TrEMBL record:
PANTHER family: INTRAFLAGELLAR TRANSPORT PROTEIN 52 HOMOLOG, NGD5/OSM-6/IFT52. This is IFT52 GIFT domain-containing protein. InterPro entries: IFT52 (IPR039975), IFT52_GIFT (IPR055458). GO terms for cellular component: centriole; cilium; intraciliary transport particle B. It comes from Anguilla anguilla (European freshwater eel). GO terms for biological process: cilium assembly; intraciliary transport. It holds the Pfam family IFT52_GIFT. Residues 9-91 form the IFT52 GIFT domain.
Amino acid sequence: MEKEQRNIVAINASKKELFTANNGYKSLQKRLRAQWKIQSVKDELSVEKLNGVKLWITAGPREKFTAAELEVLKPYLDGGGAILVMLGEGRGDEVRHQHQLPS
């Protein structure tokens, strides 16, 4: 019998995020581990890195995402993937403009 594949949550750590899988999400990981596989994305975002990922999280990115990385997210979202982007207070407009995200 084939082992059931668990859903994957990918936590980004490639843009000097304020919170990463090992820093700030430990209690969240404990709660999710039974049903979800948690992985850290430390390199540039790519289609391969998002393969099988149900939810991609970035929390407080301090570096810009490249145009190529943003292009990877479009088909990921169109294919049913989900993203959670968390920003510091008052930084939404600044980051949206900096990363060329839609309003």
